[in-house]
Structure formats: structure tokens, C-alpha cells
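Reopening this one. Same input as before:
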Amino acid sequence: MNTESCRVLLVDDHPLFRCGVAQLIAAQEGFEVVGEAASAEEGVQLASSLKPDLVLMDLNMKESSGLSALKQIKDSGIETQVIMLTVSDAEQDFIRAVRAGAEGYLLKGSEPEEILDKLRLAARGETVFTEPLMSMLLDTMRDGTPAAPPTDEECLTARERQILRLIAAGKSNKHIARELDISDGTVKVHVKNLLRKLNLQSRLEAAVWALTTA
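Same output, byte for byte:
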């Protein structure tokens, strides 16, 4: 993914808000809104057919769950980053989204400039979140919940430890593959294995765990 051609899918059941965000993003150089969905189910269908670089999705919608849609998109293997854009700053919602594989979590109450800045980072393959939530995630993982990973990296191979450090540095799979001169597919296998060994569910959890145990 790169900032020259970041294709965005919006999933939100509020038409006015969705329209406003679409106009905001479309006005930015290097972004293209390729689709809009009014429900989680429609969002999953469009993600599958359009294969966007970025999905910006509400967490709680009237007749459907953004969390459920997130899990379906991740389970399907669609190559896209999913960023939750929601009003909820509840710890449970944030942690559940992270564990389900969200690459970002932004609050609707944020300033438009902040959201755009975060989307530019996401377009480069980085994980993004509204800053106060980082402390929440750090505290949760230090307390040993929601997962109880090993206390060190001894269970990981040398290559997995190398990739973990690059994930913690905010590198995407493509960047990691390029830096280590291996294929994207090989990186995905290593990431899957290290998450399993550390009893973690997402790259963001892995990044935070690596930072807290450094």
C-alpha cells in the first residue's frame, strides 16, 4: 500500500457522517474512495469485491456489528487494513477490536486533521490509534489480560524475533519482506507463527507486547 494510490472503503450506517468522511478523504491527494457501505454485511461484500487498501468502519451499527465484519474480513484473507472509526472509547470495545485484527482504532470525536494524519500513516502500512488508547492497551497487556503471553522471546526463532522487532517499528508485511529480502508470503507465515507462540491475536498486540517487554 502507498500514499499514491490508497483505495478506501467506508462502512458506516449514518449517511450524513459517511458522506462527510467520503468528501474529506476524497479531497486529499493520494486517496480514492472506491465504495461506501451502510451495513457490516454490505461492507464485507464490498471488501471482497473491491479489495480496497483500507477499510474505515464503524464499530456499532444499528442492525449489524463492525466487529463481526472485521472478523469476517480477516478470516477471509482479504489483503486490506481495517481501521475502526467509532464513538466508543470503552476499553472492552478497543481491546476486542485489536484482538480481532484491527490495524487501527480512531474516535469520531477526533479533529479531522488528526484522522487524516492517521490515515496517511495507515496508507504506509502502519497501525494507528487515537493516542490516549495506547496507554489503555499498554496497561491491559501489562496486567496480563486479555492474553497471557510468554515473558520472553525464547520460544521464537531468530527470524521470528527479527520480524517481531520490525512489526514493533510499525513496518508492514511488504516493508518487512523488502527489508529482509524474502517474500510477502513468507512474512505472513512467520507472523502467524509468532502470534500463535505468543498467544496473541493481532499485529498491534504483538507490537505493544514487544515494546512492553523490551
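So the earlier flakiness isn't reproducible anymore. For the record, Residues 81 and 141 are 23 Å apart (CA to CA).
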